[in-house]
Write a structure and sequence with these properties.
alpha+beta, 3 strands, about 30% helix
């Protein structure tokens, strides 16, 4: 979500490295000046078409607190549909947001993973 905070060459290297194992794209969450929004929207649109036999598809955004999950959803919708704050704990419950007719986005509260022994 925060590719705007590092030099372009750093973003490029991370994309190259991560793309070897995972579908990867650079993204900057901003309602006014997004980066990577078109690529992610196209990916989600294609995913919806691939599974058009389903009534609907839900795409969850989960991860550590305060990493921009709500901001990504707000960027994709081009308006503030999920509450976002500079402190952790703003999202308290799952929130379903319609992106397309059959594609829903789920904003989840931050998750902190415990140590596995």
């Amino acid at each position: 979500d925060r590719c705007d905070l590092v030099p372009t060459w750093v973003t490029s290297r991370w994309i190259k490295l991560l793309s070897r194992e995972y579908p990867t794209l650079a993204f900057h969450a901003s309602i006014r000046n997004p980066f990577g929004k078109g690529a992610l929207m196209q990916l989600l649109r294609q995913f919806g078409q691939l599974h058009k036999d389903k009534k609907h598809i839900s795409v969850g955004f989960f991860g550590y607190p305060n990493v921009g999950k709500s901001s990504v959803i707000n960027t994709l919708r081009a308006k503030k549909v999920c509450k976002a704050a500079p402190i952790a704990g703003e999202t308290k419950v799952w929130q379903y947001v319609t992106l397309f007719r059959n594609v829903y986005l789920i904003d989840c509260p931050g998750t902190v993973y415990g140590n596995v022994k």
